[in-house]
Amino acid sequence: MPFSRSGISISIIYELVAQFIFTIPTFQKHKIHDFRELIYGRDYIFEPIEGLKKGYMTAQCKGVKRGDWIILEDDSRSYRYQVEQIDYYSEPSDMWIALLNQAIVEET
After folding, report:
1. Strand 95-107 to strand 54-60: parallel, antiparallel, or no bridges (unpaired)?
2. Could you tell me which of 85, 91, 46 has the C-alpha nearest to residue 64?
3. pLDDT confidence of residue 18
4. Taking a C-beta distance cutoff of 8 angstroms, is the pair 100, 84 a contact?
5. How many other C-beta atoms are found inside a 10 Å radius of the C-beta of residue 108?
6. What's 3's DSSP letter?
7. What is the rounded CA–CA span in Å between residue 60 and residue 83?
8. ∠ CA 42-87-36, rounded to 5°
9. Where are the beta strands (DSSP E) in the chain?
10. Integer Cα distance of 63 and 83 in angstroms
């Protein structure tokens, strides 16, 4: 069995390198879903809790995941929320309810 200069088996080094490569966390880029042009009550429902700092949102669109950003508008302000939890309904399969945390309030 070949050894490196430090006395560690080359096969152990290869094994450690392979484990490192295959366990590196994959970083997902979180998507931004802009609901400002959609109609409240028809396209989505937002139920605020703790003022506007958090809220439950129900909508029907595919691709929203935990960690994604959602932009909503109320009067002249845009609110950016991050999806903390999300559960998709079984029917229709693209309908979901999510717990959102407010991140940024923007004047528009």
Report:
1. antiparallel
2. 85
3. 64
4. yes
5. 8
6. B
7. 15
8. 35
9. 32-34, 44-49, 54-60, 69-74, 77-88, 95-107
10. 12
Per-residue pLDDT tens listing for the chain (108 residues):
454 455 666 676 667 666 665 555 555 688 999 999 999 999 999 999 988 899 999 999 999 999 999 999 988 788 999 999 999 999 999 999 999 999 866 555
The Cα 10–Cα 51 span in angstroms is 60
54 vs 64: CA distance, rounded Å: 17
- Helix boundaries (H) for 1-108: 10-23
Strands 32-34 and 69-74: parallel
Strand-pair partners of 47: 56
Cα gap 53→36, rounded to integer Å: 18
CA geometry: angle 15, 22, 67, nearest 5 deg: 155
Encoded tokens for 67: 């960690």
